[in-house]
Design goal:
This protein has 405 residues and is an alpha+beta fold. 29% of the residues lie in helices and 37% in strands. The protein has 5 helices and 22 strands. The strands form 3 sheets. Strands 1, 15, 16, 17, 20, 21 and 22 form a 7-stranded mixed beta sheet that branches. A 6-stranded antiparallel β-barrel has the order 2-9-13-12-11-14.
């Protein structure tokens, strides 16, 4: 028992000695560390906001469609003698595509021409006989003979006209042995080769031609959003040239297409399968950058509004779907602001409340900060590609108007 009490007493004395050393040496160092941590501030990139007028835009998804599509089929029977195009190449309106053997059709034309000559040969005789009976009627010729002569003349003229019609039909068939392009476009591969027999108006197409300049873009959106678009169009808020609505196209790789499109009023329907509203836009496509089947997005301006543009890269959504952004408060700390109403403006959100001139929006370093944390603002800009860069780098179009991607 005595030995056990001595061990416990020794342990207590050792603990008390260590505590005393900690109070004399470690405590001041601990206070200094805590004070240093409280003074550190994380650097974050910021842009200074200023009220301005920005476009209100909407982005509609869509697919590219050929302006015209034609399945090429023969209109006469025969054997393909020549294929005059390069598969996958460009053809012009009127270019020869297929030549069907035309020997039989040339013979038919010559036969029709001979039939015209034969019919015309009988006309002078019938005309002379008619003239004679017309002079003699009532004085040596009966009325019946006169009527017979007039009928014979009419029949001779009718035979000439019938022969001419037969020649026209034969010539049409001969012309149809040359199958030509109905418009400028790109031609597919051929389904038939030289020596194949084809039939008039067969179900299988010989090939297909697609006109790609201009090109259609079929856009789809919910009926609610499209109703807003139509209201903006009716109110005259939608901007365009010569009273035409101007659409800008964003390609699959995020690049903006260098041509502007116009609304095609010929097709505005609601899809029976999805219930979405479909509108069609026409875009020039001289270099065939846009091809049928491509997925694209089209941007249209619905007017303009004064406010503050928050780049989309600096915003987020909370659990309730509300737009949020991080700002530097007057105390130099992170402040989270919630915006109930925001309108799309190219690659930014346009807000009119909870912001004032001079507010600093945090645009970089967002992953390493939390609300209430002290930060050190570093001036930044958004370049034309929507990338955050230091403020001393030049940027076209203004600090708060990053180019749409």
């Amino acid at each position: 028992m005595i030995r056990r009490a001595l061990i416990i007493s020794s342990a207590l004395l050792l603990v008390m000695g260590l505590a005393a050393c900690n109070e004399s040496g470690s405590k001041p160092a601990g206070n200094a560390g805590a004070g240093g941590a409280a003074q550190q501030a994380a650097p974050v990139g910021v842009v200074t906001l200023k009220k301005d007028t920005y476009p209100i835009t909407t982005i509609l998804p869509g697919r590219a469609e050929a302006f015209q599509v034609a399945d090429i089929r023969p209109q006469v029977n025969g054997i393909i003698r020549e294929i005059a195009f390069k598969e996958g190449g460009e053809v012009k309106k009127g270019d020869l595509l297929y030549q069907i053997d035309d020997a039989a059709y040339r013979a038919a034309v010559e036969q029709a021409q001979a039939a015209i000559s034969k019919a015309q040969a009988s006309v002078p005789s019938a005309q002379s006989n008619f003239d004679r009976y017309q002079r003699l009627v009532g004085s040596g010729a009966t009325q019946i003979e006169f009527e017979t002569a007039r009928t014979a003349l009419a029949q001779a003229n009718a035979e000439v006209e019938a022969a001419k019609a037969a020649l026209t039909a034969a010539q049409i068939d001969l012309d149809h042995t040359k199958i030509t392009a109905p418009f400028d476009g790109i031609i597919d591969q051929t389904a038939y080769n030289i020596g194949n027999v084809v039939a008039a108006n067969q179900s299988t197409a010989l090939t297909t031609i697609r006109q790609l300049d201009p090109i259609y873009i079929s856009l789809t959106e919910s009926s609610t959003n499209l109703l807003k678009l139509r209201d903006a169009i009716a109110a005259g808020d939608v901007k365009g040239e010569d009273n035409n609505i101007a659409f800008r196209l964003i390609l699959e790789d995020g690049r903006e297409y260098n041509q502007k499109g116009k609304l095609d009023m010929s097709k505005q329907v609601v899809s029976e399968t999805t219930g979405t509203f479909i509108i069609r836009v026409v875009f020039p496509n001289p270099d065939r950058v846009v091809l049928p089947g491509m997925y694209v997005r089209a941007t249209v301006e619905l007017g303009a509004e004064a406010g503050y543009a928050l780049p989309q890269l600096a915003t987020a959504r909370d659990a309730n779907g509300r737009l949020t952004a991080q700002f530097v408060s007057a105390e130099g700390k992170v402040e989270t602001r919630v915006f109930e109403n925001a309108s799309p403006s190219n690659n930014s959100w346009l807000v009119t409340q909870s912001v004032k001139d001079g507010d600093q929006l945090i645009v970089s370093g967002l992953q390493s900060i939390v609300s209430g944390m002290p930060v050190k603002p570093v001036p930044m800009k958004i370049n034309d590609n929507g990338v955050v860069v230091p403020a001393d780098q030049p940027v076209a179009g203004g600090e708060q108007k990053p180019a749409a991607k």
